[in-house]
């Protein structure tokens, strides 16, 4: 049957709200009224709770959802570890982490080299910190997929919440809780444990992008302080799916004729099991633990309308707090097109050494502090400026901005860079340093080797006490 616009609209209906309490049923009467687990849930469904925080987490942090499904997700044979050959391009494990103070930049990462590579086999661990077994830290990933995941395969991660940033190719993501269409310039978050399948929205358009896995805590909207009650990413612009299910449940859960594969990411290793029933059999759900998407074009950018370049925290879309107030394990920050009007101001980012680490990527266009083109900072590439690794505009961008006429300028029309910023020192995997073969030789020399001396003062000096 040809797919019609009506089908597409039905498939991608959303409910709006960040951290809201939502509910959806794909068959009338599937949600129990006024209780969660009746003796016999409606329509012969099973009730299953999915928790995203400890049962006893404070109310304002508590995240749970109730799923009403045809069969419970425990009904599967044991998981078996998938052999991981780290020399294979399909290896998720990036290898040991290397901690180095040098500035690093990567050319655009390759698209999938094999037509058989899907989202899971094309997911590469590039950098990270901490440990999923301790639920501490984060992992950063690059993905490249040439094809949709098999229609009978679902994936989940026990390691954390995955923030996906498509750079090329729209993703049609089927989750247990419903569908999300995520195009470049949109992002989504799939919480820990939720099973999903990543399909290419256009099978002719291979997908490539970035991802961040949060081993601890969950993303929240940043505080707005004096900005007030609206601004940056507004809660109502986050979209959650509506329930969508298929009734394909085999005969018994353990009969030999297995039809569906479930792949689990567990401590950065992959395990799989096969079961006769589809994991996408959730007929209804309610709760505040759900996958969501956000269109970066809806970001309400705020900046200086007087002078000086503010901290990039004003561009924070989502923030995952650490235990320390105001300090994030992971901030997701974007640099969208915006007006620069600052008077007597060096408008690009200042030179800096940061206690936080900064992993940056470019979704489209250019970035005002770095030259583009071959060997520059280009879409699909990345950079890492680790804890206290000095950086800032390259020499060329500095000279340009120093001399620029300070009229109002729209910077970055049609462009969008982003940053995964973390309070943790970030290690780079073997894949990131070597196997991907994208590290730019001489990045720091090309960028800052040529910074000019503009000093106009004397050859020596010493501070004097005021008399
Ligand atoms: O390093 C970067 O390009 C990211 C960045 C941007 C900015 O406007 C201020 C500080 C900062 O780290
Ligand atoms: Fe920076």
Automatic annotation (TrEMBL):
Name the Gene Ontology biological process terms.
Answer: L-phenylalanine catabolic process; L-tyrosine catabolic process
Q: Does the keyword Membrane apply?
A: no
Annotated active site: 309
Q: Where is the Homogentisate 1,2-dioxygenase N-terminal domain?
A: 13-296
Write down what this protein is called.
homogentisate 1,2-dioxygenase
**PANTHER family the record matches:** HOMOGENTISATE 1,2-DIOXYGENASE
For this protein, the Enzyme Commission number is 1.13.11.5
Output the Gene Ontology cellular-component terms: cytoplasm
Q: Which UniProt keywords apply?
A: Dioxygenase, Iron, Metal-binding, Oxidoreductase, Phenylalanine catabolism, Tyrosine catabolism
Q: Which cofactor does it need?
A: Fe cation
Tell me which family the UniProt entry assigns to this protein: Belongs to the homogentisate dioxygenase family.
According to its UniProt record, in which pathway does this protein act? Amino-acid degradation; L-phenylalanine degradation; acetoacetate and fumarate from L-phenylalanine: step 4/6
Binding-site residues for Fe cation, renumbered to this chain? 352, 358, 391
Q: Which GO terms describe its molecular function?
A: homogentisate 1,2-dioxygenase activity; metal ion binding
* Keyword Metal-binding applies: yes
The UniProt entry, under Gene3D superfamilies, shows: Jelly Rolls (2.60.120.10)
Q: What class of enzyme is it?
A: oxidoreductase
> Which species is the source of this protein?
Schizothecium vesticola
Q: Where is the Homogentisate 1,2-dioxygenase C-terminal domain?
A: 298-454
Residues the entry annotates as binding homogentisate: 367, 391
């Amino acid at each position: 049957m040809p797919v019609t616009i009506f089908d597409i609209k039905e498939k991608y209906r959303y409910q709006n709200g960040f951290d809201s309490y939502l509910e959806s049923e794909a068959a009338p009467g599937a949600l129990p009224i006024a209780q969660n687990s009746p003796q016999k849930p409606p329509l012969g469904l099973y009730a299953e709770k999915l928790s995203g925080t400890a049962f006893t987490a404070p109310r304002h942090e508590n995240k749970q959802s109730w799923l009403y499904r045809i069969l419970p997700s425990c009904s599967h044979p044991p998981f078996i570890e998938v052999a991981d050959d780290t020399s294979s391009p399909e290896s998720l494990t990036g290898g040991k982490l290397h901690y180095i103070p040098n500035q690093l930049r990567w050319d655009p990462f390759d698209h999938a080299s094999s037509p058989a590579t899907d989202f899971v086999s094309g997911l590469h661990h590039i950098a990270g910190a901490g440990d999923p077994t301790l639920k501490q830290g984060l992992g950063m990933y690059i993905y490249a997929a040439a094809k949709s995941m098999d229609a009978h395969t679902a994936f989940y991660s026990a390691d954390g919440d995955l923030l996906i940033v498509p750079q090329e190719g729209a993703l049609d993501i089927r989750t247990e809780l419903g569908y999300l269409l995520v195009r470049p310039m949109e992002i989504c978050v799939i919480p820990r444990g939720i099973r999903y399948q990543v399909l290419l929205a256009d099978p002719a358009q291979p997908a490539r992008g970035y991802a961040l896995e949060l081993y601890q805590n969950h993303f929240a909207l940043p505080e707005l302080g004096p900005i007030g009650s609206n601004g940056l990413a507004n809660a109502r612009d986050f979209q959650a799916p509506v329930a969508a299910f298929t009734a394909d449940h085999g005969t018994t859960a353990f009969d030999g004729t297995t039809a569906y594969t479930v792949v689990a990411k567990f401590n950065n290793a992959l395990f799989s099991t096969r079961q006769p029933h589809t994991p996408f059999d959730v007929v209804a759900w309610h709760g505040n633990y759900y996958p969501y998407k956000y269109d970066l074009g809806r970001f309400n950018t705020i900046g200086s309308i007087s002078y000086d370049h503010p901290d990039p925290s004003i561009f924070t879309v989502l923030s995952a707090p650490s235990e320390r107030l105001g300090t994030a394990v992971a901030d997701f920050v974007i640099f969208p097109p915006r007006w620069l009007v600052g008077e007597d101001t060096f408008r690009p980012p200042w030179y800096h050494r940061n206690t936080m680490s900064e992993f940056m990527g470019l979704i489209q266009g250019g970035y005002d502090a770095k030259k583009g083109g071959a060997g520059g900072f280009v879409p699909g590439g990345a950079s890492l400026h680790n804890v206290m690794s000095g950086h800032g505009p390259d020499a060329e961008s500095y000279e340009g901005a120093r001399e620029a006429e300070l009229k109002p300028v729209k910077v970055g029309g049609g462009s969008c860079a982003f940053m995964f910023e973390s309070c943790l020192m970030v290690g780079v995997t073997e894949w990131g340093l070597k196997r991907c073969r994208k590290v730019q030789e001489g990045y720091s020399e090309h960028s800052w080797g040529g910074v000019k001396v503009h000093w106009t003062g004397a050859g020596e000096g010493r501070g004097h006490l005021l008399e």
